[in-house]
Protein backbone atom coordinates (compact mmCIF):
# COMPACT_ATOMS: atom_id res chain seq x y z
CA UNK A 1 0.00 0.00 0.00
CA UNK A 2 1.38 3.37 -0.90
CA UNK A 3 1.94 5.77 1.98
CA UNK A 4 0.61 8.61 -0.20
CA UNK A 5 -2.98 9.58 0.43
CA UNK A 6 -5.46 9.87 -2.37
CA UNK A 7 -5.08 13.15 -4.22
CA UNK A 8 -7.83 15.63 -3.47
CA UNK A 9 -10.28 16.69 -6.17
CA UNK A 10 -9.34 19.57 -8.43
CA UNK A 11 -8.14 22.66 -6.63
CA UNK A 12 -10.67 25.38 -6.27
CA UNK A 13 -9.60 28.94 -6.67
CA UNK A 14 -10.99 32.01 -5.04
CA UNK A 15 -11.97 35.21 -6.71
CA UNK A 16 -10.63 38.63 -5.98
CA UNK A 17 -13.15 41.42 -6.40
CA UNK A 18 -10.55 44.05 -6.98
CA UNK A 19 -7.47 43.08 -8.88
CA UNK A 20 -4.55 44.69 -7.14
CA UNK A 21 -2.60 47.09 -9.33
CA UNK A 22 0.49 48.61 -7.84
CA UNK A 23 0.76 51.44 -10.33
CA UNK A 24 -2.77 52.68 -9.58
CA UNK A 25 -2.70 52.74 -5.80
CA UNK A 26 0.13 51.43 -3.71
CA UNK A 27 -1.94 51.54 -0.54
CA UNK A 28 -4.52 49.21 -2.06
CA UNK A 29 -1.78 46.65 -2.41
CA UNK A 30 -1.26 46.72 1.33
CA UNK A 31 -4.83 46.09 2.39
CA UNK A 32 -5.59 42.97 4.39
CA UNK A 33 -9.09 42.65 3.02
CA UNK A 34 -8.53 40.62 -0.13
CA UNK A 35 -11.63 38.56 -0.70
CA UNK A 36 -11.67 34.84 -1.16
CA UNK A 37 -14.98 33.11 -1.36
CA UNK A 38 -13.70 29.57 -1.23
CA UNK A 39 -11.62 29.78 1.94
CA UNK A 40 -14.21 28.00 4.03
CA UNK A 41 -13.44 24.32 3.92
CA UNK A 42 -9.91 22.93 3.69
CA UNK A 43 -9.15 20.35 1.01
CA UNK A 44 -7.70 17.01 1.96
CA UNK A 45 -3.97 17.15 2.72
CA UNK A 46 -2.27 15.43 -0.17
CA UNK A 47 0.94 13.92 1.16
CA UNK A 48 2.91 13.69 4.36
CA UNK A 49 5.64 16.28 4.74
CA UNK A 50 9.39 16.08 5.23
CA UNK A 51 10.05 15.59 8.92
CA UNK A 52 6.96 13.42 9.41
CA UNK A 53 6.99 10.94 12.29
CA UNK A 54 7.41 8.28 9.62
CA UNK A 55 10.62 9.92 8.52
CA UNK A 56 13.81 9.91 10.51
CA UNK A 57 14.12 13.69 10.90
CA UNK A 58 17.88 13.96 11.21
CA UNK A 59 19.57 17.34 11.53
CA UNK A 60 21.24 18.86 8.48
CA UNK A 61 25.00 18.23 8.10
CA UNK A 62 27.07 20.03 10.76
CA UNK A 63 29.22 21.92 8.23
CA UNK A 64 26.07 23.32 6.63
CA UNK A 65 24.48 24.21 9.97
CA UNK A 66 27.62 26.17 10.89
CA UNK A 67 27.05 28.41 7.87
CA UNK A 68 23.29 28.74 8.45
CA UNK A 69 23.32 29.43 12.19
CA UNK A 70 24.47 32.98 12.84
CA UNK A 71 26.24 34.15 16.02
CA UNK A 72 23.95 35.73 18.64
CA UNK A 73 24.08 39.34 19.80
CA UNK A 74 22.09 42.37 20.95
CA UNK A 75 18.91 43.21 19.03
CA UNK A 76 18.16 46.81 18.00
CA UNK A 77 14.90 48.14 16.58
CA UNK A 78 13.96 51.46 14.96
CA UNK A 79 11.10 52.78 12.83
CA UNK A 80 7.32 52.51 13.14
CA UNK A 81 6.33 50.26 16.06
CA UNK A 82 2.55 50.72 15.97
CA UNK A 83 2.00 47.38 14.26
CA UNK A 84 -1.71 47.73 13.52
CA UNK A 85 -1.06 51.05 11.76
CA UNK A 86 1.71 49.89 9.42
CA UNK A 87 0.67 50.47 5.80
CA UNK A 88 -2.75 51.75 6.81
CA UNK A 89 -4.15 55.23 6.56
CA UNK A 90 -5.93 55.56 9.89
CA UNK A 91 -6.00 54.23 13.42
CA UNK A 92 -9.33 52.42 13.44
CA UNK A 93 -8.99 50.83 16.86
CA UNK A 94 -8.00 54.04 18.64
CA UNK A 95 -5.24 52.16 20.47
CA UNK A 96 -2.41 53.79 22.40
CA UNK A 97 0.32 54.91 20.02
CA UNK A 98 4.09 54.70 20.43
CA UNK A 99 6.11 57.50 18.86
CA UNK A 100 8.22 56.35 15.92
CA UNK A 101 11.75 55.35 16.93
CA UNK A 102 14.10 57.52 14.85
CA UNK A 103 17.37 56.24 16.37
CA UNK A 104 18.38 52.64 17.13
CA UNK A 105 17.19 51.34 20.50
CA UNK A 106 17.98 48.08 22.29
CA UNK A 107 15.15 45.55 22.32
CA UNK A 108 14.57 42.09 23.85
CA UNK A 109 16.42 40.77 26.90
CA UNK A 110 17.78 37.60 25.28
CA UNK A 111 20.71 37.29 22.91
CA UNK A 112 19.30 36.97 19.39
CA UNK A 113 20.95 35.10 16.52
CA UNK A 114 18.35 35.89 13.86
CA UNK A 115 15.85 38.72 13.41
CA UNK A 116 13.59 38.62 10.34
CA UNK A 117 10.77 40.67 8.84
CA UNK A 118 9.65 41.34 5.25
CA UNK A 119 9.30 44.28 2.87
CA UNK A 120 5.50 44.37 3.30
CA UNK A 121 5.39 42.89 6.83
CA UNK A 122 4.16 44.44 10.06
CA UNK A 123 5.36 41.46 12.10
CA UNK A 124 8.77 39.95 12.88
CA UNK A 125 10.41 36.69 13.94
CA UNK A 126 13.33 36.48 16.38
CA UNK A 127 15.41 33.36 17.00
CA UNK A 128 17.16 33.22 20.37
CA UNK A 129 20.66 31.92 21.00
CA UNK A 130 19.27 28.46 21.87
CA UNK A 131 17.09 28.24 18.73
CA UNK A 132 13.68 29.23 20.15
CA UNK A 133 11.38 31.17 17.80
CA UNK A 134 9.79 34.35 19.17
CA UNK A 135 7.33 36.56 17.28
CA UNK A 136 5.80 40.00 17.71
CA UNK A 137 3.81 42.54 15.71
CA UNK A 138 0.54 42.42 13.80
CA UNK A 139 -1.34 39.16 14.15
CA UNK A 140 -4.62 39.61 12.30
CA UNK A 141 -4.37 36.22 10.56
CA UNK A 142 -2.42 34.31 13.23
CA UNK A 143 0.91 34.99 11.49
CA UNK A 144 2.69 35.03 14.87
CA UNK A 145 1.89 31.33 15.38
CA UNK A 146 0.65 31.90 18.93
CA UNK A 147 -2.76 30.23 18.42
CA UNK A 148 -4.62 33.56 18.58
CA UNK A 149 -5.02 36.77 16.56
CA UNK A 150 -4.02 39.35 19.17
CA UNK A 151 -1.28 41.85 18.27
CA UNK A 152 1.85 41.31 20.38
CA UNK A 153 4.09 44.21 21.41
CA UNK A 154 6.60 41.99 23.23
CA UNK A 155 8.47 39.09 21.57
CA UNK A 156 6.64 35.91 22.60
CA UNK A 157 7.90 32.33 22.30
CA UNK A 158 6.01 30.23 19.70
CA UNK A 159 4.72 27.41 21.95
CA UNK A 160 4.38 24.63 19.38
CA UNK A 161 8.02 24.98 18.27
CA UNK A 162 9.62 25.14 21.72
CA UNK A 163 11.28 21.76 21.31
CA UNK A 164 12.63 22.61 17.83
CA UNK A 165 15.90 24.31 16.88
CA UNK A 166 14.84 27.08 14.48
CA UNK A 167 17.53 28.23 12.03
CA UNK A 168 15.58 30.31 9.50
CA UNK A 169 12.39 32.30 9.01
CA UNK A 170 10.59 34.55 6.52
CA UNK A 171 7.66 36.95 6.78
CA UNK A 172 5.08 37.70 4.09
CA UNK A 173 2.36 40.32 4.33
CA UNK A 174 0.28 38.15 6.66
CA UNK A 175 2.02 34.77 6.83
CA UNK A 176 5.23 33.32 8.26
CA UNK A 177 7.56 30.43 7.40
CA UNK A 178 9.88 28.88 10.01
CA UNK A 179 12.77 26.51 9.20
CA UNK A 180 14.21 24.01 11.71
CA UNK A 181 17.65 22.36 11.80
CA UNK A 182 16.21 19.17 10.25
CA UNK A 183 15.34 21.05 7.05
CA UNK A 184 11.63 21.01 7.91
CA UNK A 185 9.40 24.04 7.23
CA UNK A 186 6.43 25.16 9.32
CA UNK A 187 3.95 27.86 8.28
CA UNK A 188 1.28 29.97 9.94
CA UNK A 189 -0.94 32.95 9.20
CA UNK A 190 -3.02 33.89 6.16
CA UNK A 191 -3.50 30.92 3.85
CA UNK A 192 -6.32 32.21 1.62
CA UNK A 193 -4.05 31.98 -1.44
CA UNK A 194 -2.32 28.75 -0.36
CA UNK A 195 0.80 30.69 0.68
CA UNK A 196 1.33 28.49 3.76
CA UNK A 197 1.78 25.45 1.48
CA UNK A 198 -0.11 23.01 3.71
CA UNK A 199 -2.08 21.45 0.83
CA UNK A 200 -5.35 23.27 1.39
CA UNK A 201 -6.96 26.71 1.57
CA UNK A 202 -7.79 26.82 5.27
CA UNK A 203 -8.07 30.63 5.67
CA UNK A 204 -6.08 31.12 8.91
CA UNK A 205 -3.43 28.86 10.40
CA UNK A 206 -3.02 30.05 13.98
CA UNK A 207 -0.31 27.61 15.07
CA UNK A 208 2.69 26.62 12.87
CA UNK A 209 1.85 23.64 10.69
CA UNK A 210 4.31 21.56 8.70
CA UNK A 211 4.11 22.36 5.00
CA UNK A 212 2.92 19.73 2.53
CA UNK A 213 6.33 18.80 1.13
CA UNK A 214 8.30 15.58 0.75
CA UNK A 215 11.72 16.00 -0.78
CA UNK A 216 15.30 16.95 0.04
CA UNK A 217 15.66 18.97 3.30
CA UNK A 218 15.08 22.72 2.98
CA UNK A 219 17.94 25.16 3.68
CA UNK A 220 16.30 28.56 3.02
CA UNK A 221 12.80 30.03 3.11
CA UNK A 222 11.44 33.27 1.62
CA UNK A 223 8.10 35.07 1.40
CA UNK A 224 6.58 37.57 -0.98
CA UNK A 225 3.38 39.37 -0.06
CA UNK A 226 1.10 36.38 -0.74
CA UNK A 227 3.45 33.66 -1.99
CA UNK A 228 6.36 31.61 -0.66
CA UNK A 229 9.64 30.19 -1.97
CA UNK A 230 11.78 27.44 -0.45
CA UNK A 231 15.24 26.18 -1.48
CA UNK A 232 16.27 22.58 -0.92
CA UNK A 233 19.72 21.27 -0.07
CA UNK A 234 20.26 20.09 -3.68
CA UNK A 235 19.60 23.53 -5.15
CA UNK A 236 15.99 23.00 -6.19
CA UNK A 237 13.58 25.93 -5.86
CA UNK A 238 9.93 25.29 -4.92
CA UNK A 239 7.13 27.87 -4.84
CA UNK A 240 3.51 28.07 -3.66
CA UNK A 241 0.74 30.57 -3.04
CA UNK A 242 -0.71 33.29 -5.28
CA UNK A 243 0.42 32.98 -8.94
CA UNK A 244 -1.01 36.37 -10.00
CA UNK A 245 1.94 37.93 -11.85
CA UNK A 246 3.77 34.70 -12.71
CA UNK A 247 5.63 35.09 -9.42
CA UNK A 248 5.63 31.32 -8.79
CA UNK A 249 7.74 30.76 -11.91
CA UNK A 250 5.50 27.97 -13.27
CA UNK A 251 4.76 29.64 -16.61
CA UNK A 252 1.27 30.78 -15.61
CA UNK A 253 -0.39 33.62 -13.74
CA UNK A 254 -3.12 31.20 -12.67
CA UNK A 255 -5.99 33.40 -13.89
CA UNK A 256 -9.32 32.14 -15.15
CA UNK A 257 -12.82 33.59 -15.42
CA UNK A 258 -15.37 31.83 -13.24
CA UNK A 259 -18.16 33.94 -14.73
CA UNK A 260 -18.13 36.70 -17.34
CA UNK A 261 -16.96 39.23 -14.78
CA UNK A 262 -15.43 37.18 -11.98
CA UNK A 263 -11.67 36.67 -12.22
CA UNK A 264 -10.24 33.82 -10.13
CA UNK A 265 -6.86 32.20 -9.53
CA UNK A 266 -5.63 28.64 -9.42
CA UNK A 267 -3.65 28.86 -6.19
CA UNK A 268 -0.68 26.55 -5.65
CA UNK A 269 -1.43 25.06 -2.21
CA UNK A 270 1.65 22.80 -2.01
CA UNK A 271 5.28 23.46 -2.92
CA UNK A 272 5.91 22.88 -6.63
CA UNK A 273 9.38 22.82 -8.13
CA UNK A 274 10.48 25.51 -10.59
CA UNK A 275 11.77 23.48 -13.54
CA UNK A 276 12.38 25.93 -16.38
CA UNK A 277 14.92 28.78 -16.61
CA UNK A 278 15.16 30.84 -19.79
CA UNK A 279 16.98 33.65 -21.54
CA UNK A 280 15.48 36.03 -24.09
CA UNK A 281 17.33 37.67 -26.95
CA UNK A 282 16.60 41.22 -28.08
CA UNK A 283 14.41 39.95 -30.91
CA UNK A 284 12.28 37.98 -28.43
CA UNK A 285 13.76 34.54 -29.09
CA UNK A 286 13.44 32.35 -25.97
CA UNK A 287 15.90 29.57 -25.18
CA UNK A 288 16.20 27.38 -22.05
CA UNK A 289 19.15 27.83 -19.69
CA UNK A 290 20.66 24.78 -18.02
CA UNK A 291 20.51 25.49 -14.28
CA UNK A 292 21.73 22.69 -12.05
CA UNK A 293 21.68 24.42 -8.68
CA UNK A 294 20.19 27.59 -7.18
CA UNK A 295 22.31 28.86 -4.28
CA UNK A 296 20.43 31.95 -3.07
CA UNK A 297 17.26 33.94 -3.68
CA UNK A 298 15.23 36.87 -2.37
CA UNK A 299 11.53 37.73 -2.63
CA UNK A 300 10.00 41.15 -3.16
CA UNK A 301 6.34 41.98 -2.87
CA UNK A 302 5.40 40.23 -6.14
CA UNK A 303 8.72 39.15 -7.65
CA UNK A 304 11.74 36.95 -6.97
CA UNK A 305 15.43 37.13 -7.91
CA UNK A 306 17.63 34.02 -7.63
CA UNK A 307 21.31 33.18 -8.19
CA UNK A 308 22.64 29.88 -9.50
CA UNK A 309 25.95 28.16 -8.81
CA UNK A 310 27.51 29.90 -11.83
CA UNK A 311 26.70 33.32 -10.28
CA UNK A 312 24.05 34.10 -12.88
CA UNK A 313 20.95 36.00 -11.75
CA UNK A 314 17.37 35.14 -12.77
CA UNK A 315 14.21 37.11 -12.02
CA UNK A 316 10.49 36.59 -12.48
CA UNK A 317 7.08 37.85 -11.38
CA UNK A 318 5.70 41.39 -11.54
CA UNK A 319 7.75 43.48 -13.97
CA UNK A 320 6.53 47.01 -13.16
CA UNK A 321 9.14 49.74 -12.51
CA UNK A 322 11.97 47.55 -13.90
CA UNK A 323 12.41 45.53 -10.72
CA UNK A 324 13.26 42.42 -12.77
CA UNK A 325 16.22 44.15 -14.44
CA UNK A 326 15.30 43.21 -18.02
CA UNK A 327 15.01 46.80 -19.36
CA UNK A 328 11.29 46.28 -19.92
CA UNK A 329 8.33 46.31 -17.52
CA UNK A 330 6.80 43.00 -18.62
CA UNK A 331 5.78 40.32 -16.12
CA UNK A 332 7.86 37.16 -16.40
CA UNK A 333 6.14 33.79 -15.85
CA UNK A 334 9.36 31.75 -15.57
CA UNK A 335 12.82 32.66 -14.24
CA UNK A 336 14.58 34.76 -16.89
CA UNK A 337 18.30 35.39 -17.05
CA UNK A 338 19.27 39.00 -16.24
CA UNK A 339 21.55 39.67 -19.20
CA UNK A 340 23.33 42.59 -17.53
CA UNK A 341 25.05 40.27 -15.05
CA UNK A 342 25.83 37.52 -17.55
CA UNK A 343 29.50 38.33 -18.07
CA UNK A 344 32.82 37.35 -16.52
CA UNK A 345 33.27 40.46 -14.43
CA UNK A 346 29.70 40.73 -13.19
CA UNK A 347 28.95 37.49 -11.35
CA UNK A 348 26.33 38.02 -8.63
CA UNK A 349 27.10 36.80 -5.11
CA UNK A 350 24.01 38.03 -3.25
CA UNK A 351 20.56 39.52 -3.90
CA UNK A 352 18.05 41.40 -1.75
CA UNK A 353 14.58 42.46 -2.86
CA UNK A 354 12.48 45.35 -1.62
CA UNK A 355 8.82 45.80 -2.47
CA UNK A 356 9.29 47.31 -5.96
CA UNK A 357 13.06 47.09 -6.45
CA UNK A 358 15.99 44.68 -6.29
CA UNK A 359 19.60 44.95 -5.12
CA UNK A 360 22.51 42.77 -6.22
CA UNK A 361 26.13 42.61 -5.04
CA UNK A 362 28.60 41.47 -7.68
CA UNK A 363 31.84 39.53 -7.36
CA UNK A 364 33.81 42.77 -7.35
CA UNK A 365 31.77 44.17 -4.44
CA UNK A 366 29.65 46.61 -6.45
CA UNK A 367 26.07 47.27 -5.36
CA UNK A 368 23.51 47.48 -8.19
CA UNK A 369 19.91 48.66 -7.94
CA UNK A 370 17.05 48.05 -10.37
CA UNK A 371 13.41 49.00 -9.98
CA UNK A 372 11.99 51.96 -8.08
CA UNK A 373 12.55 52.85 -4.44
CA UNK A 374 10.48 56.03 -4.43
CA UNK A 375 6.75 56.23 -5.07
CA UNK A 376 7.35 58.81 -7.77
CA UNK A 377 10.19 59.67 -10.10
CA UNK A 378 12.41 57.65 -12.35
CA UNK A 379 12.77 53.87 -12.20
CA UNK A 380 15.94 51.90 -13.02
CA UNK A 381 14.76 49.60 -15.80
CA UNK A 382 18.05 47.66 -15.66
CA UNK A 383 20.76 47.25 -12.99
CA UNK A 384 22.66 50.46 -12.25
CA UNK A 385 25.55 50.82 -9.78
CA UNK A 386 24.99 52.77 -6.57
CA UNK A 387 28.00 55.06 -7.06
CA UNK A 388 27.92 56.46 -3.52
CA UNK A 389 28.96 53.03 -2.22
CA UNK A 390 31.82 52.38 -4.63
CA UNK A 391 34.82 51.08 -2.69
CA UNK A 392 32.85 50.10 0.42
CA UNK A 393 33.10 46.49 1.57
CA UNK A 394 29.43 45.54 1.98
CA UNK A 395 28.59 42.72 4.43
CA UNK A 396 24.80 42.88 4.86
CA UNK A 397 21.92 44.40 2.92
CA UNK A 398 18.27 44.75 3.93
CA UNK A 399 15.40 46.32 1.98
CA UNK A 400 11.95 47.42 3.09
CA UNK A 401 9.01 49.06 1.36
CA UNK A 402 10.93 52.08 0.04
CA UNK A 403 14.04 52.08 2.27
CA UNK A 404 17.43 50.36 2.17
CA UNK A 405 19.98 49.78 4.92
CA UNK A 406 23.42 48.18 4.58
CA UNK A 407 26.36 47.31 6.80
CA UNK A 408 29.66 48.14 5.11
CA UNK A 409 33.13 48.10 6.68
CA UNK A 410 32.52 49.40 10.24
CA UNK A 411 29.55 51.58 9.29
CA UNK A 412 25.82 51.29 8.81
CA UNK A 413 24.43 53.26 5.83
CA UNK A 414 20.77 53.84 4.98
CA UNK A 415 18.59 55.76 2.56
CA UNK A 416 14.98 55.99 1.46
CA UNK A 417 12.59 58.58 0.06
CA UNK A 418 9.72 60.06 2.06
CA UNK A 419 7.48 58.99 3.60
CA UNK A 420 9.72 57.19 6.09
CA UNK A 421 8.98 56.32 9.71
CA UNK A 422 12.37 56.24 11.41
CA UNK A 423 13.48 52.97 9.80
CA UNK A 424 16.63 54.69 8.48
CA UNK A 425 17.84 55.29 12.05
CA UNK A 426 19.22 58.73 11.15
CA UNK A 427 17.84 60.53 14.20
CA UNK A 428 15.05 63.00 14.89
CA UNK A 429 16.07 65.61 12.33
CA UNK A 430 16.80 63.59 9.15
CA UNK A 431 13.72 61.48 8.48
CA UNK A 432 14.40 60.60 4.84
CA UNK A 433 17.23 60.88 2.35
CA UNK A 434 17.52 60.04 -1.35
CA UNK A 435 21.28 59.46 -1.10
CA UNK A 436 23.07 56.93 1.13
CA UNK A 437 23.87 58.42 4.57
CA UNK A 438 25.87 56.96 7.42
CA UNK A 439 23.96 56.13 10.59
CA UNK A 440 26.47 57.86 12.86
CA UNK A 441 24.88 56.50 16.05
CA UNK A 442 25.92 52.99 14.98
CA UNK A 443 29.48 53.89 14.01
CA UNK A 444 31.89 51.18 15.15
CA UNK A 445 29.14 48.70 16.01
CA UNK A 446 29.84 45.25 14.51
CA UNK A 447 26.67 44.10 12.73
CA UNK A 448 25.79 40.40 12.63
CA UNK A 449 22.55 40.72 10.66
CA UNK A 450 20.04 43.21 9.25
CA UNK A 451 16.39 42.92 8.29
CA UNK A 452 13.67 45.39 7.36
CA UNK A 453 9.92 45.23 7.70
CA UNK A 454 7.59 47.52 5.84
CA UNK A 455 8.44 50.48 8.10
CA UNK A 456 10.87 49.16 10.73
CA UNK A 457 14.44 47.86 10.92
CA UNK A 458 15.91 45.03 13.01
CA UNK A 459 19.67 44.88 13.58
CA UNK A 460 21.70 42.32 15.56
CA UNK A 461 25.02 43.64 16.91
CA UNK A 462 27.97 41.82 18.47
CA UNK A 463 28.12 42.18 22.27
CA UNK A 464 30.94 39.88 23.35
CA UNK A 465 33.78 42.06 24.63
CA UNK A 466 33.47 44.41 27.65
CA UNK A 467 34.09 47.38 25.33
CA UNK A 468 31.27 46.33 23.01
CA UNK A 469 28.86 45.76 25.90
CA UNK A 470 29.75 49.14 27.36
CA UNK A 471 29.13 50.87 24.02
CA UNK A 472 25.80 49.14 23.48
CA UNK A 473 24.70 50.07 27.02
CA UNK A 474 24.78 53.73 25.94
CA UNK A 475 21.77 53.13 23.66
CA UNK A 476 18.26 53.68 24.96
CA UNK A 477 16.12 50.63 25.61
CA UNK A 478 12.76 50.24 23.86
CA UNK A 479 10.00 49.07 26.18
CA UNK A 480 6.61 48.71 24.43
Describe what you observe in this structure:
With 480 residues, the chain is mainly β. The protein has one domain: Regulator of chromosome condensation 1/beta-lactamase-inhibitor protein II (Methylamine Dehydrogenase, Chain H, 7 Propeller). It has two helices and 31 strands. A hairpin with a 3-residue loop joins strand 18 and strand 19. The N and C termini lie far apart (55 Å).
Q: Quick recap of the structure?
A:
InterPro entries: RCC1-like_dom, RCC1/BLIP-II, RCC2, Reg_chr_condens. This is RCC1-like domain-containing protein. The chain is 3% helix and 38% strand.
Notable features of this structure?
seven-stranded antiparallel beta sheet, Methylamine Dehydrogenase, Chain H, disordered N terminus, 31 strands, mainly beta, 2 helices, four-stranded antiparallel beta sheet, globular, 3% helix, 480 residues
**What is the spatial order of strands in the main beta sheet?**
5-4-3-2-1-31-30
Gross morphology is globular
What amount of the residues lies in strands?
35-45%
The CATH class is Mainly Beta
Quote the CATH topology: Methylamine Dehydrogenase, Chain H
Present the secondary structure layout.
Layout: H1 62-68, E1 73-79, E2 101-116, E3 123-128, E4 133-137, E5 152-157, E6 166-171, E7 175-180, E8 185-190, E9 204-210, E10 218-223, E11 227-232, E12 237-241, E13 255-257, E14 263-265, E15 268-273, E16 278-280, E17 286-288, E18 294-299, E19 303-308, E20 313-317, E21 332-337, E22 348-353, E23 357-362, E24 367-371, E25 380-385, E26 394-399, E27 403-408, E28 411-416, E29 433-438, E30 447-452, E31 456-461, H2 466-473
Antiparallel strand pairs: 1-2, 1-31, 2-3, 3-4, 4-5, 6-7, 7-8, 8-9, 10-11, 11-12, 12-15, 13-14, 16-17, 18-19, 19-20, 20-21, 22-23, 23-24, 24-25, 26-27, 27-28, 28-29, 30-31
